[in-house]
Every structure is written in structure tokens, then in C-alpha cells.
Amino acid sequence: LNIGVLVSGGGTNLQSIIDGTKFGNIKGNVNVVISNKENAYALQRAKHNDIDAIYETNEDKIIEILKKYKVDLVVLAGYLKIISPKFVSEFKDKIINIHPSLIPSFCGGGYYGEKVHQAVIDYGVKFTGATVHFVDEVADNGPIIMQKTVEVKQDDDAKTLSKRVLEVEHKILNESIRLFCENKLSIQGRRVFINE
Ligand code: GRF
């Protein structure tokens, strides 16, 4: 399957997906990476792996590019923009997102990047984690594919916690993409069933 990845930052999730297609067990290939940030290091990572890397901020153009590359799966990997209902409907049930918390906690508007981990620490929860979900019309709200917990340690700060959560993000994102490419995910209402 052709995988299109949308990024905004450093691209460690993108790197993990690329590695998963090259050395891991993802039966797919990343054939285009699009960023809304011109200097996102994620674009460099794409170039280093001979993958077309495109800076684009206009959503209609992004949709056109994804269609031109015949993308079968769109992955939002650290993509810090909310996509429109039109975008969602163009790729219904073919867009997945990784969020660095256990949805529905610490998600939705304003909760992104380090802010999530600071809110987790400030609230005093004992566990956080990461969530991979299908994207629907409401931010961070679509059917959940996979989650994995991360213990919050007493001496954690947002930086140390984000590092441990990021490792878990890479793991469950790759696993979710592997399952999608093997057509092992089925959505029933809000629930996603894994037919391994
Ligand atoms: C990180 O905050 C990560 O938790 C979230 O997006 C941000 C950047 O990730 N998913 P990446 O290193 O650009 O993939």
C-alpha cells in the first residue's frame, strides 16, 4: 500500500514508519511526506530516504497531492493542524493519527506536543500513554485502534515523560499501520476490532 505521511516537526514517528517499511513488517511504502512547516526536520528525513518531501499549507492542494500519489493510507505523524471534514470524507477510514496521551484524556484543542505531558504531570495522573486512532470529523475523537500505557514517575518532567511516551508512540503506530496494510482492522461504530 502507498502511505502518505503528514508531519509538522522532528519526524521521529515518520522515521519509525520508514524503518518499519524498510526493515520491519509493514507491507507498505511511504511514497510522499507533506509538511505545513517548511523547516520541519521530518522533510529532511524523507529526503534522506529518497521519499518525495513537499512543503504545503493549503489543504486542497494537500488532498490533490495525496490523490496524485495514489495514497491508500494517510498517517498524521506529529501533524499539528486539524484537518477539515472535507479532507476526512475524501479519505474515509483511511486516515490514522497518533496522539501522545490515553484518549479521551488530555486531548482535543490545545493539547499537543509538550503541553500534553505538562498537563499530565500537573493533573497528577499515575499513568499516561499513547493512542492511535482513525481520524473522524472531531479532533482526537475517532475510533481507537491501539493504546499503550506509560507510568508517570515522581521525578518526571514534561521532557523526560515525553521521551518515554514517544518510544511507545513509535511502537503502536508501526503495529497499527502493519495491521491496516494487512487489512486486519475493522471498524464497528466506535470500536475497532483487530482480526489477527
Ligand atoms: C510529539 O509531541 C509526538 O508526541 C506527537 O507529535 C510530536 C512530534 O512527533 N505525536 P515527531 O517526532 O515529529 O514524530
From TrEMBL:
<feature type="binding site">
    <location>
        <position position="97"/>
    </location>
    <ligand>
        <name>(6R)-10-formyltetrahydrofolate</name>
    </ligand>
</feature>
<comment type="similarity">
    <text>Belongs to the GART family.</text>
</comment>
<keyword id="KW-0658">Purine biosynthesis</keyword>
<protein>
    <recommendedName>
        <fullName>Phosphoribosylglycinamide formyltransferase</fullName>
        <ecNumber>2.1.2.2</ecNumber>
    </recommendedName>
</protein>
<dbReference type="InterPro" id="IPR002376">
    <property type="entry name" value="Formyl_transf_N"/>
</dbReference>
<feature type="active site" description="Proton donor">
    <location>
        <position position="99"/>
    </location>
</feature>
<comment type="function">
    <text>Catalyzes the transfer of a formyl group from 10-formyltetrahydrofolate to 5-phospho-ribosyl-glycinamide (GAR), producing 5-phospho-ribosyl-N-formylglycinamide (FGAR) and tetrahydrofolate.</text>
</comment>
<dbReference type="Pfam" id="PF00551">
    <property type="entry name" value="Formyl_trans_N"/>
</dbReference>
<feature type="domain" description="Formyl transferase N-terminal">
    <location>
        <begin position="2"/>
        <end position="175"/>
    </location>
</feature>
<dbReference type="InterPro" id="IPR036477">
    <property type="entry name" value="Formyl_transf_N_sf"/>
</dbReference>
<comment type="pathway">
    <text>Purine metabolism; IMP biosynthesis via de novo pathway; N(2)-formyl-N(1)-(5-phospho-D-ribosyl)glycinamide from N(1)-(5-phospho-D-ribosyl)glycinamide (10-formyl THF route): step 1/1.</text>
</comment>
<keyword id="KW-0808">Transferase</keyword>
<feature type="binding site">
    <location>
        <begin position="80"/>
        <end position="83"/>
    </location>
    <ligand>
        <name>(6R)-10-formyltetrahydrofolate</name>
    </ligand>
</feature>
<feature type="site" description="Raises pKa of active site His">
    <location>
        <position position="140"/>
    </location>
</feature>
<dbReference type="GO" id="GO:0005737">
    <property type="term" value="C:cytoplasm"/>
</dbReference>
<dbReference type="GO" id="GO:0006189">
    <property type="term" value="P:'de novo' IMP biosynthetic process"/>
</dbReference>
<dbReference type="InterPro" id="IPR004607">
    <property type="entry name" value="GART"/>
</dbReference>
<dbReference type="GO" id="GO:0004644">
    <property type="term" value="F:phosphoribosylglycinamide formyltransferase activity"/>
</dbReference>
<feature type="binding site">
    <location>
        <begin position="11"/>
        <end position="13"/>
    </location>
    <ligand>
        <name>N(1)-(5-phospho-beta-D-ribosyl)glycinamide</name>
    </ligand>
</feature>
